């Protein structure tokens, strides 16, 4: 005896599996929801970051670089700026010196008049704003023709996500100046007036010497007037520092400027330059020996080729990246928080219209390195920052950022010229696919 079954009857034990209420939202729906609430996403991400990073840093001995800026600047007029050391608790802690030019110390002097919690709050707020400005400027270079509303959403969402990458997190935790300088540089190079572009880069270099490499960008792009203005601004700022503090200026420009060891232990896992990686691999500080010169010469050729190729295809972001990556690799010290230029590298790798294996490899390498905080874990696994007796697995791990940078340079070099359609659309070509939102509201705009 058979029993007829009515297919239209809903089982009493539960709801219809096809009930829309039980379906997971589609990826486009999630993107659209995030885009509509982009400001809230950034606000929540910032709040969590402040609770997990900033408050512990303020209540303990964190934000050490900001403490150096505040305390060290008070020694400028006393004449012993470069004899100053910030003492931190712990027997094996490196006593931090003031490593920037006297002009920077003069700019930091107002911080010394504020209580540390207030100075830390103001500095962190400025750094978060600089992150947004840095992402904004980088995305404008990557996709200049993106509609304003879509661009705004991308900036806010990218800022919220990239806040948790190692260079940004450590910049905030240490109270570093990297985001402020990177934002100044990326916005300055987009200025059409040569004086404005050069002045921004020159002042950034006068505060911390590493942005001076941006002058190569002006030369490769044949912006001769901007390069000249950057040199004028740099020399003028250095002259102001010399006028304010002749003694410290002599100490810095004649002695301290070339001493990498006083900045910190070269072999520390946080130093992700070629010199740091080579020293960890060979077991001694390679200094300016044959291995360093050979590696730097090869990287110089590769970076120059990448920058010139990018300039030839009107890829401003690619040219700027090649120059900045070269500076980070060639510098004796490139702490993990110096690598904020990995953020626009991600934009370029996600944006470029031509697909190559090198681009995919570089993108995967950065996507693994940045959120995993590999330099931080290297220091935890090898806490003796002055010792170079690394095991081979840790020495390999210590190449994380240089390998990502080299892959990026090769990807920049192997990129083909854009199609005529892309050139007609603008220098950026096709826009970033991440957080792409296609809603009726945007179409109507």
Summarize the structure.
The chain has helices at 27-36, 38-59, 64-73, 102-108, 116-142, 148-162, 166-174, 178-188, 194-207, 214-220, 224-244, 246-254, 274-282, 290-312, 316-330, 342-351, 357-372, 374-381, 392-397, 400-414, 420-425, 440-444; strands at residues 85-86, 96-97. The chain is an all-alpha fold and 445 residues long.
Q: Can you tell me about this structure?
A:
Helix 2 packs parallel to helix 6 (148-162), helix 8 runs antiparallel to helix 9 (194-207) and helix 10 (214-220) runs antiparallel to helix 11. It is built from 22 helices and two strands. By secondary structure, it is mostly helical. It has helices at residues 27-36, 38-59, 64-73, 102-108, 116-142, 148-162, 166-174, 178-188, 194-207, 214-220, 224-244, 246-254, 274-282, 290-312, 316-330, 342-351, 357-372, 374-381, 392-397, 400-414, 420-425, 440-444; strands spanning 85-86, 96-97. Mean pLDDT is 85; it is low at 1-15 and 419-445. The longest helix is centred in the N-terminal third of the chain and has 27 residues, at 116-142. It is globular. Strands 1-2 form a two-stranded antiparallel ribbon.
